[in-house]
Every structure is written in structure tokens, then in C-alpha cells.
Amino acid sequence: KFIDVFGMFVVATPDAPPAYVEHTANVLAEYIDNDADGIPDDQTVLDVLVNGNFVVPVWTESDRESFWENARGTYCEDNTGMAASMYYEYDEWALGGIEAAGTWDGNLEEVWHVVSIGWYATYPEYFGDEPGVSRLAEAMDTARGGQFFTIPSTYPAGSWYRYYDETCDYVCQGNEYFYWIMMANFGALDPSITDKCQGSSDEWGVCTKEQLAQVDPLAHSLLNDHGFNLPDRIPDGNY
Fold first, then answer.
1. In this predicted model, what pLDDT tens digit does every residue of 193-214 receive, in sequence order?
2. Single pTM value for the model
3. Residue 56 and which of 66, 89, 110, 135 are 20 to 30 A apart at CA?
């Protein structure tokens, strides 16, 4: 299954439920055209994703393994961008959006991890994910209580972003941080509509845009004070 979203593609295996595939495509469309006027909010960001052949797969882990086994030695091996996937067997799905469904939607994270690649590449001085080169990295170092290239055994007191996954390097940590600040900034973590923030408090506990401004002013300023057309509405899968 293939759905063209502004030149990007959501791709899915034959067994993927059509409602899930369409939902992922709509969330992708909402991240690209958040004000739903039919025009990409930042064409340069979209161009990075289209020219890089980035896709958003909806499949199973075994489907993913089979794809990459069959892609070895082909054009697809080095020329398909695949930063994240949605697994229809066990990921969280909120058809109709998190407010209507009353559950979290993994698409908000995984689709953003793909789309954010365009933001890193287009505005590296602001969103670059390498240490010491961007405002995003500076904000993350502040949120973690230091610039850590390996996972500390314990984060400093006063830190509000604490990610302990040993497989997640500095760049990966930045990707996760960008996701969290975006969710807080457009209200997806508001306790009035989801318990996601409360359930993730060991990693991230800034739940609203107002809290982001108070606790993480560098992140709040990055997202709101520089004229970027970043998404400011929660994607709900209705586009």
C-alpha cells in the first residue's frame, strides 16, 4: 500500500489495516501542512524529505527485517530514508486523535521523527542535532544538566530531561528531546487530555506550553520566537 503525501510516501505491507495506514498518512500531512491550507508550511523542509526518499512505513518488525534483507545490493539499500516506523501489531494508535480516542498515538512521535529530519537539515544553526552547533543542542544540554556524550548513571539534580537508554547516542538524545518539546509546545501532553506526560515523568515532565516557558525557556524561545512555521496544532489523523 502506498499513500502519496506531498511527494513523500506512507508505505505499508498488504496486511496492514487500511485505517491505520490512512491515519499515519493524515498525521504526516498534518505535520507538513499544519494549518491545512493545502500548502506545505515549509517547502524547503519538505524538499529535504522528498529528495531523500524518506518514507513512513506501517508494518511489523518481521516485515522490516525482510525488506532490508531483500534491499541489500539494490538501489533501495542506500537510497531509501527510513528514520522511524509504525508497527500496527503493538504500537499505540488513536484513530480520530488523542482527544477523541482518549489514548496516546504513537504516530505523534514516530512520524515527527521522520519529519524532523527536514528541520535539522534546513536550519542547522537552530535545530542541528550535533553537539555544540545549534540552539536545540544548547537547550538539550541545559535540560539534561550538562553535555553528556555517554549516559550518566544519574542526571544532575534540577535536570528535567533524563533519558537512560544506553543505545541512544547524543544525536538520538537530541531527536527525542525535539519530540518532547514539540509535544509540550502544541499541547499534546496536557494532562487534561492525556496521561502521557505523567506516565513519562521519569524521562520528561514538562506537560504544557506554559510549563515549557517556565522550566525550559531556551526550548520555548526556539520554537516560538524565530518565525518558524513549526506545527502548533495536535495532529489527529483528520486531514
1. 999 999 999 999 999 999 999 9
2. 0.96
3. 135
